[in-house]
Specification:
2 strands
Length: 254
């Protein structure tokens, strides 16, 4: 295994792109690309720098007789924690809770005027006694959910900033978990789009059968808000989880 192959392997074990390695070393991405393709050889100063970054000895990096299994697991970069498989489990579990709370909070804000709309042409008293208090309670509950998610995510700020390294088994698990999540993501997005498209249908149908009933006339717009809130819940929950996987993998297309 030659030097260029080792540089590429160690970079991928740290889950860094060529740009990220170049930034850490103070060189251009083209330089890293040339090292990995074998078009050029890094200077001894750069080799020493890579040894410090990857946590390997110069002997392990330069010797051609070493195979991938001989190279050590990645170590944490100074100031950047090394996330083990257990750390990744905890992070994903944390983000699942955050995704649900965020989605419920946003959906509650969208649906909060539903009772106000429902009673708007029926009874001003019902609007004042039920509709408005219900709306403010839902908004207050949503704000509490948002504050709660901020507390939950504070522990993993370094993930948001991509200032960490992943152990090899943790990296492999995140990749598999993201692939397993994709069908659920596609399903939620498709269902959410369908709900948005169909949301005006209750208004259209109930208007046709209202027969001068103010309650039925207002039920349509109220149901529209509920359907849109459901769609928003699906969007926020699925996209929040996708962002979690993408940030753990340090993908740029978040």
């Amino acid at each position: 295994m030659n030097l260029s192959e080792k540089i590429m392997l160690l970079r991928k074990r740290q889950n860094w792109s060529q740009e990220e390695l170049a930034e850490r070393m103070g060189v251009s991405r083209q330089s890293v690309s040339k090292w990995e393709s074998g078009a050029s050889v890094p200077e001894l100063e750069r080799v020493a720098q890579m040894c410090a970054l990857f946590g390997v000895t110069a002997d392990a990096l330069i010797r051609d007789d070493l195979v991938p299994g001989d190279l050590p697991e990645p170590t944490a970069v100074p100031g950047h924690p090394l996330m083990t498989l257990e750390d990744v489990y905890a992070c994903v579990s944390n983000h699942q809770t955050v995704a649900r709370k965020m989605a419920l909070g946003v959906a509650a804000c969208v649906a909060s005027p539903a009772l106000v709309v429902l009673f708007s042409d029926v009874s001003g008293k019902l609007t004042d006694v039920i509709g408005l208090p219900a709306m403010f309670l839902m908004i207050a509950w949503a704000v509490w959910q948002f504050i709660n998610t901020g507390t939950l995510t504070s522990r993993y700020r370094f993930v948001e900033k991509r200032q960490f390294s992943l152990a090899a088994d943790a990296l492999e698990w995140v990749r598999e978990a993201r692939e397993q999540f994709r069908p659920a993501l596609i399903r939620d997005i498709a269902l959410g789009v369908a709900l948005c498209i169909l949301s005006p249908m209750p208004t259209i149908l109930l208007d046709a059968f209202a027969y001068d009933s103010p309650l039925l006339e207002c039920a349509g717009p109220a149901l529209l808000l509920v359907l849109v809130a459901w769609a928003v819940f699906l969007f926020v929950r699925s996209v929040t989880m996708l962002n979690c996987y993408q940030r753990l993998l340090k993908d740029k297309d978040v």
